[in-house]
Amino acid sequence: MFAARVGSIKFYLEPHTQKCLREELKQDTLVVGGFEVSPVSNQQVDYIVTDSKGSILAKNNDISNGKFTFATESDDIFEICFISMIPLRHIGAPHEILLNVKHGVEAKTYEELGEAAKLKPMEVVLRKLEDLSDAVVHDFVQMREREKVMRDTNESTNSRVLHLGIFSAFWLFGLSYWQVSYLRRYFRSKKLIE
After folding, report:
1. How many domains does the chain have?
2. Whether 123 and 89 share a structural domain
3. Would you say 135 and 3 are in contact if contact means Cβ atoms under 8 Å apart?
4. What's the domain range around 96?
5. Which residues fall in a coiled-coil region (predicted)?
6. Are both 51 and 80 inside the same structural domain?
């Protein structure tokens, strides 16, 4: 998963329902989101952004459009929920919701950064490319670490399965030897074999 990924999604929210979208993000990731909700009379849509611990990062009631921004403090799963509510005894219609979420390098506004640092347009582009390359290198380092953990888990599991197989083979061999010995003694005691 690249940190420079941009997500935009359009979906329909039925009356008296809730739709939630989740994403796992790394520590110190800037998240910028925008949304538009189609208007429907006598209905309202609320949204809430939470982390896995239930902490509220952004929230608003009776929305039509808006933005939210937050920075992650730790590696966590974040969730944005849209909730449709209508008054009792009203027939509702679905809302169309357009959600655009950017995080990582794509969430930064390089134009403002360039103006603040008095950078030339080419320097702003170079700064953005530098951040993108840093994000790619960081993602490859994370992938390498995950690959190492998965390889260690795979080798540990392989070792355990091998030991279980050897134990099972000895156990079955011992059980079959005991069964043959028992049957031999039984048939000898009944004088069926010599």
Report:
1. 2
2. no
3. yes
4. 1-107
5. none
6. yes
